[in-house]
Design goal:
The radius of gyration is 40 Å and the shape is elongated. The chain is of the alpha+beta class and 198 residues long. The protein starts with a helix and ends with a helix. The protein is built from 5 helices and 6 strands. The longest helix has 43 residues. The strands form 2 sheets. A 3-stranded antiparallel β-sheet has the order 1-4-5. It has a 3-stranded mixed β-sheet with strand order 2-6-3, with no helix packed on it.
């Protein structure tokens, strides 16, 4: 009896387990699936390349800004030095200097101021010319209003402290006095000129 079992056992193992077959794919279905997978991979690649390019551009822009504006704090600290040199020159006009020592001192201070302003220019730091200009809150800070100046309202009539730009950014606004009242005719003329040009 045991011999019969041994003989029949191998017969049951061969080919008796049914294989789980997947549904057969047609070549067209296989091609469509591969094309979809390829399109998905291509799209992912394009997105990754675009993101890499955006990161590169952003890093380049940040590097350029860092190079351009890295001296902002240092330059801001030097503005008071430029202000003090100008105050020293304004405190004693050159024609009031009596002796040669005073004249030489004034000449030396003037030369120092010129050299400092030239260094500012070389590094993109420029003084804002405000006198006689229309008040612009983007570049000027009004400290007072002056009446009876004979100037149109909103015109800068006095500069208390010059303003500075670092390349295209405001480093310090000009502290100014602005005409109050005055003749309104130029403002009306400007408005008419604007209407004509439109």
């Amino acid at each position: 009896m045991s011999d019969e079992r041994e003989e029949t056992a191998p017969a049951n193992d061969i080919g008796s387990a049914p294989e789980a077959e997947a549904a057969p794919e047609t070549p067209e279905e296989r091609i469509a699936a591969l094309e979809a997978e390829l399109a998905k991979g291509h799209d992912s690649l394009l997105r990754a390349l675009a993101e890499t390019e955006n990161v590169r551009r952003r890093a380049q822009r940040e590097r350029q800004d860092a190079e351009k504006y890295s001296v902002a704090k240092f330059a801001g600290d030097l503005l008071s030095t430029a202000d003090n040199l100008r105050r020293a020159l304004d405190s004693l006009p050159e024609d009031e200097a009596k002796d040669d020592r005073t004249k030489n001192l004034l000449a030396g201070v003037a030369a120092t101021e010129r050299e400092l302003l030239a260094a500012f220019e070389r590094h993109g730091l420029k003084r804002i010319e405000a006198m006689g200009e229309r008040f612009d809150h983007n570049f000027h800070q009004a400290v007072f209003e002056a009446e009876n100046t004979g100037r149109p309202a909103g015109t800068v009539v006095e500069v208390l402290q010059p303003g500075y730009m670092l390349h295209d950014r405001l480093l310090r606004p000009a502290m100014v006095g602005v005409a109050k009242g005055g003749s309104a005719a130029p403002a009306a003329d400007e408005a008419e000129g604007t209407d004509d040009g439109a």
